[in-house]
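hi!! sorry for the late reply, been swamped w classes. u asked for the two structures so here they r. pasted raw, havent cleaned anything up. first the sequence of the first protein and right below it the C-alpha cells
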Amino acid sequence: PDPSAAGGRWALADRNADGSLDRSEAAALPRLAQHFERIDRNRDQRVDRDELREAWRLVSARRDLGQAWAR
C-alpha cells in the first residue's frame, strides 16, 4: 500500500484539518477504523500520518516476508 495514495481520502476524513484522525473521523476510512487501536501507537486516541505510514510499512514487511517464505 502507498500512504500517498490515500491522501485525498485522508483530507476528506480530517474534518477539522488538524493533520490527524480521531475515531469519529476515522470512521470515513473503514479499514483504518477497523484497526484504529493497532495503528494508534502512542495511544492518544488519534492517528496521524506517521502512525499510518508505520502501519503500512509493517503490513508491507509482513506481506513481503510471507511471499519470501512461499518461494
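now the second protein. again sequence first, C-alpha cells right under
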Amino acid sequence: ERQQKIHLGLVVARVDDLENLEPKAIQAAVDSQTNSHLSSFLQGYWLKPEGEMVLALDGKAIAAAMPTSNL
C-alpha cells in the first residue's frame, strides 16, 4: 500500500523555540495533562532535561480535521 504525502503548514502567533528530537523520545500523551480539544491533535510529549514539557503535534490528525473545499 502506497502512503500519500501530506504537506502541512501552520500559522502561529509566535514561536518561542525549536526542538530537534528523536521520535522514539516522544511519550504518549496523558488525557489529564492536556486540554480535551487539543488531545486529538497530539502525538505525545517530550520532557526536556530541565523538566519542561514539549508537545508533539500529530500532523496527520491536523490535516484530517482541516476543512476541504471543492474548487
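hope this helps!! also noticed smth abt the second:
Helices lie at 36-39, 59-65.
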